[in-house]
Specification:
Length: about 200
């Protein structure tokens, strides 16, 4: 007799077992198709996060504007935007503002025409000085209740095609562009982490 006890396993079974130990087999719950889809989703998430990090959107502050008579313009009417003192340093000529044309009584809500700031008077004036400067009376005078600087923008044609001269003394809500922020800062928890 040899000295080695005979194996209880067949030689073919032992070879099959040894071969199967050498192969790497992915778990059964992840098919190759699912694995590929998960990698694609992860890549899309990374690309969209990077885009949101670098993309910037404008930030607007809401304030009032009054239509005033101006000599030397084609229609004689401009918007005098009453800018709160804390926003004066963030404005410059050429920045955009969105005019809420539907915010005035009797005008259909027809969107927000975009206008540009054409002049900026950074001097902060009292409400009384503003009323005197623009000759405001009645309702328009009552809306001027706080000190403000003045930014001017062309009223231009409004969506309802009425001549601008008929709007003298009208009061509008406007959103003035005061800066920009990253898109990612608008996500609630992430925005707090970024200090947005």
């Amino acid at each position: 007799m040899n000295g080695t006890p005979p194996s209880i396993f067949r030689p073919a079974a032992v070879r099959h077992y040894a071969r199967s130990q050498a192969e790497t087999v992915p778990p059964r719950f992840v098919s190759p198709r699912t694995f590929l889809i998960l990698w694609i989703l992860l890549t899309l998430l990374m690309v969209s996060s990077l885009s949101a990090w670098f993309a910037r959107v404008p930030v607007y502050a809401s304030t009032l504007a009054i239509t005033v008579r101006v000599t030397g313009t084609s229609d004689g009417v401009d918007l005098a935007v009453l800018v709160p003192p804390d926003l004066v340093g963030r404005l410059r000529v050429g920045q955009s503002l969105l005019l809420d044309a539907g915010g005035r009584q009797g005008t259909p809500a027809s969107g927000y025409p975009k206008r540009r700031i054409i002049a900026l008077d950074r001097t902060v004036r009292s409400p009384e000085a503003l009323r005197r400067r623009f000759g405001l009376q009645s309702t328009a005078a009552l809306t001027v209740t706080r000190p403000a600087a003045i930014a001017f923008a062309r009223l231009g044609p409004l969506p309802d095609r009425t001549p601008a001269s008929r709007y003298f003394g009208s009061i509008y809500q406007v959103d003035v562009e005061v800066g920009s922020t990253r898109v990612l800062a608008l996500v609630p928890i992430v925005g707090q982490l970024l200090g947005g």
